[in-house]
Amino acid sequence: MLNTKINKKGLTALLLFSAVVSILASSLTISAAGKEKYISSYMQFARQQQKKTKKKLCYAIVNASDGKMPVLLITDSWLKMGGKCTAVAKVYSYSGSKVVYITKMRSTGSGYPLIKKGKYIISGWHHSSQRLMVSDAKGYMESVEGFGLENGKYYQRTWTVVNGKKRKMATKKISVKKASSLDFYSNFYSNGNIIRFKKVK
Predict the structure, then answer these.
(1) How far apart are CA 179 and CA 90, in angstroms?
(2) Which DSSP helix (H) or strand (E) runs through 162?
(3) 100: buried, middle or exposed (CB in 10 Å: 19+, 13-18, 0-12)?
(4) Measuring CA to CA, which of 17, 48, 82, 124 is 20 to 30 A from 198?
């Protein structure tokens, strides 16, 4: 009788475990299939843009969104040294079964490459630091400004961006201490990932 109860409990546990594994595997398969569809669409779009602009383009596909799905970056900016792509890049997302433009992310050449940290694409230079998170067809931007300027005024700005157009801009003045703590670029440069661009073929 005891063995029968144990066997029933074991069988129930095994069935529950199998169900959980099956659900997780199905979820991972769907997620992987979704990413593959996005990546395929991004590559096709990048080739179309290269043909349309008649310029040599570079691209990067990175997970920088609230849904952990890829976004596409395209640039036609080149560094003379080594023919590498630098990062003044247009950022695209995949929404409504098509590739949509979000905004531009700018850096200043090899000394300030675009980096990725968690959900964010981060850019920065001498006087400003910005980060972007993509959600569907929208971008959520945040900037900290004023570093190295003589007037010593520091600002934090937030806004949403759709198809390159800013919406709901909010600005507030902050202290130098607050600005330093929010300097996305300096704070994450050492432990973020430099976004590497490849040539569109």
Answers:
(1) 26
(2) strand 154-162
(3) middle
(4) 124
Q: How many CB atoms lie within 10 A of CB 22?
A: 10
Question: Is residue 97 a contact partner of residue 43, using CB atoms and an 8 Å limit?
Answer: no
Whether 192 contacts 122, CB under 8 Å: yes
Token output for 111: 């000394």
Which residues have C-beta within 8 Å of that of residue 148, sequence separation ≥ 6? Answer: 126, 127
Query: Which pLDDT score, from 0 to 100, does residue 39 have?
Result: 85
How far, in Å, are 65, 142, 172 from residue 59 at the CA level?
17, 23, 35
Task: Of 20, 43, 23, give the one whose Cα is nearest residue 31.
Answer: 23
Contact 185, 148 (CB under 8 A): no
Round to whole Å and give the CA distance between 143 and 132: 9
Low-confidence ranges of the chain (pLDDT < 50): 1-6, 11, 13-33
The amino acid at residue 12 is T
Q: What is the pTM of this model?
A: 0.77
Instruction: From residue 67, give the alpha-carbon distance in Å to each of 63, 70, 167, 194.
Output: 9, 9, 21, 21
Pairing relationship of beta strands 115-117 and 98-106 according to DSSP bridges: unpaired
Closest CA to 166 of 115, 111, 102: 102
What is the pLDDT, as a whole number, of residue 110?
64
